[in-house]
Design goal:
The protein is an all-alpha fold and about 230 residues long. The chain folds into 2 domains: about 35 residues, no CATH class; about 200 residues, Up-down Bundle (Fumarate Reductase Cytochrome B subunit). The chain is built from 10 helices and no strands. It is globular and about 65 Å long. The protein starts with a helix and ends in an 8-residue tail after the last helix. It binds protoporphyrin IX containing FE (HEM). The site of protoporphyrin IX containing FE has 20 residues, from helix 3, helix 7, helix 9 and helix 10.
């Protein structure tokens, strides 16, 4: 009987792994698919690099003409040295961020990963997981699945990066993209939108890195992809 052939199967943690972990008796088990596919890891690290370069150089550009006179970023934590240098960094990283972001979004949607990884998502689930996290009772046992707070945070930062790019485009090519400029409420408001979107991203990065520090195994999976052992 075929069923007898499968007498010694490895423990199956998720439905996704079924195809790769069911092995006939006596045969070496096939490796499970990585928690994060290689394209996701590569695009994540390129995105992190480009986004941080843009943020630090953007702060130097902002200081040359602050949108909010009371808010000035200490030059020591900015990148570029002076306005011209910061603009060079900002524009160089911009191309990387945009093209890498397009690759991330297209591969995520086409592979179906985007919908399976981030949905379903409900306000109730976010509140439940947030409450559990605040009580220190949120499980990190299965790194294959994001909790509802993570899902929301990642979706927000992806949307935020899109707003950052579009508002940046409205500032940079304000004459060439009049519709975009007007959608932002004009040139000056586009600068405010750009600054606020940067603030959202900066807040995300601080919380994101703190969360990764609390669950260091998640960093390893974002580096080497992860294996069955990382889920437990
Ligand atoms: C430089 C420091 C960073 C570190 C150490 C880091 C680390 C990580 C890790 C470990 C994960 C996987 C979390 C898990 O599996 O539980 C992750 C996911 C993610 N990170 Fe970061 N990250 C960094 C910067 C950034 C930045 C700057 C952004 C965006 C502005 C970002 C956006 C994301 C997003 C959107 C995901 C989810 C990706 C997906 O599954 O599609 N990260 N990060």
């Amino acid at each position: 009987m075929i069923v007898d052939e499968f007498t010694r199967i490895r423990r199956i943690d998720t439905v996704n792994d079924m195809a790769t972990t069911l092995t006939p008796a006596g045969e070496a088990p096939q490796p499970a698919s990585p928690i994060h596919p290689v394209w996701l890891r590569v695009t994540h690290w390129i995105n992190a690099f480009a986004a941080l370069i843009m943020m630090f150089s953007g702060w130097r550009i902002y200081d040359a003409s602050p949108v909010f006179p009371d808010i000035v970023i200490p030059t020591s934590i900015t990148l570029g040295g002076w306005l011209g240098g910061a603009l060079q960094w900002h524009f160089a990283a911009m191309w990387l961020l945009v093209f890498n972001g397009i690759v991330y979004l297209v591969l995520n949607v086409v592979s179906g990963r985007f919908f399976s990884k981030f949905f379903p998502l409900s306000p109730r689930a976010v509140l439940r997981d947030l409450a559990a996290a605040l009580k220190g009772k949120l499980s990190h046992a299965d790194l294959r699945q994001y909790n509802a707070v993570q899902k929301l945070a990642y979706l927000v930062v992806v949307a935020d990066l899109i707003v950052l790019v579009l508002s940046g485009l409205a500032i940079w090519k304000s004459v060439q993209f009049p519709l975009l400029r007007e959608l932002m409420g004009g040139y000056d408001r586009a600068r405010v939108v750009h600054f606020l979107a940067m603030a959202v991203m900066a807040a995300f990065v601080v919380v994101h890195i703190a969360m990764v520090a609390l669950v260091p195994r998640s960093l390893l999976t974002m580096l080497h992809g992860g294996s069955k052992g990382d889920e437990k």
